[in-house]
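CATEGORY: protein folding

GOAL: derive structure tokens
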Amino acid sequence: MIILNEGEFLGVNERTSVQHDLILSKTAHLYGETAMHAHKNDYFSILLSGEYLENFRNESILIKPGDIVYRRRDHIHKNEFVTDTVSCINIEISHTENENFFLYTKENKGYFYQLIVDFLLNKSFAADPGFFGDQPLPEPNKNLTWLIQLIGILHAEKDVFHTPHSLAQRVFVHPNYLARAFKEKTGNTIGTYQLKIKLNHAVQQLLNTPKTISDISFENGFYDDAHFIRSFKKAYHISPLQFRKLLKS
């Protein structure tokens, strides 16, 4: 089995940079299977293009563009690249006590994508983690079961911009109490929370589909293209079209 040192990957390392004690590498991989290996550091790997299988123990998981994978340093695995070319961004971090492997499927991946954009544009990472950071939702008590229902609505109905009043009517809670309790439990206003969901969904569409900017804007409930582009640029400091070109190039 191979143990890869800091900054080493079984592929072509096209570029490496250190930002805020994180080591970022852009790698390219060709069709085929790697040897069994592990890495010296824990790291996240973001798949930009192509597809591959993550094989470990008796499991085999297909990784698709836009997926973010976490691997602990003692995670022994091999990869089978099932498309002609595969491109990844890898972010190495210090050792943690998390699981050996997980596919980072949380709705909000904005912090990672902003890190990637700044890396590819040769900028120092300047994103506000206060906007992008995930805040786990506490288990609600019996008086807050409406909160799970409300969050489900926001995730399922991305084509609508919901207001506290419209949501309050559906979960039978006073709008003022709803807005206050939501902020206390999630750390975000309803508006900010659903904007994160919409922008993350837009990122997945930009990476995984040929849909136009107008189609993506409409499907995520923005009033017009200008509103979508303005919101996206405020979060990522780059337009949706530039984002797609940058991560696909």
Observations:
- The chain has a mean pLDDT of 85.
- The chain has two domains: 2-105, 119-249.
